[in-house]
Amino acid sequence: MQIIRDIATLHRAIAALKQDGKSVALVPTMGALHDGHLSLVQMGRRVADHVVVSIFVNPTQFGPNEDFAAYPRHEARDAALLVEEGVALLWAPDVGVMYPGGHSTHIEVAELGADYCGAARPGHFDGVATVVAKLFNQVRPDVAIFGEKDWQQLAIIRRMARDLDFALDILGAPIARDPDGLALSSRNAYLSPEQRSAAVAFPGALRTAAAALANGSDMYETLAKAEAAIVAGGFDSVDYIALADADSLERLDIFRAPARLLAAARIGKTRLIDNYPVG
Ligand SMILES: Nc1ncnc2c1ncn2[C@@H]1O[C@H](COP(=O)(O)OP(=O)(O)OP(=O)(O)O)[C@@H](O)[C@H]1O
Ligand SMILES: CC(C)(CO)[C@@H](O)C(=O)[O-]
Ligand code: BAL
Question: Domain 2-173, what fold?
């Protein structure tokens, strides 16, 4: 596996991979890889001839008081995992390569980025959309793969690719979970053993609420009950819990398919997100 850190070498390596009409799948990540990321890589291997993974902890998607500095970075371990998965190329630019001095363009997916995580993290999705557009232009993949764990992010990237005519397919991969139901996330590493035990309340409450909503339970009551269960389980607060149209992300007052229950909650200094299909 080649580890590449500059654009000129990347372009030469991608051209070599694409020889003889071979296809390339891109899996963008921020590193600290877990089985969720590896499931995206495995999907890439099924749908394309070569898989390119990017690892870039993107400063522009973190707010001033968020965890950019503390975000886990384990490149050597990540690289070893990717070699085992048969990844062709690891694209791991420094911040100065991604954003050379004078960088001043950004992408805002206005309609989908304002609510949910966008409300709690102003500017976050502009940072995501901009870096993902840059990654698409840098790697020029035939397909790019993102996790359904970040449901709003996936919807925003699909809309951006459509709006800006990126000629590639976007695939969503199912959420990989620990056996107790907690969605795998690099940020789970922040949890103390006690917090990790308590965290099971989050997917548990969402699963229960998703089933109740699909069975016609009252929206307000069901969401309030789920929020109370998450806090009773040991979380400090619930940022949001909402039923949304699965594609437009419009908030729903009454269940109609296809819908997705979206939520974010805080335990100590850690903010976790998750979502479940409804119906
Ligand atoms: N449990 C999971 N199942 C499926 N995909 C996942 C999972 N966790 C992350 N991904 C996907 O991996 C890609 C890279 O995500 P990222 O590197 O931010 O990892 P993360 O574990 O989500 O970290 P964070 O703690 O920042 O949320 C994204 O497309 C994300 O949706
Ligand atoms: C898509 C992404 C790699 C962009 O920095 C990031 O938001 C992530 O890891 O989900
Ligand atoms: N997985 C989304 C990246 C972030 O939280 O910044």
Answer: Rossmann fold (3.40.50)
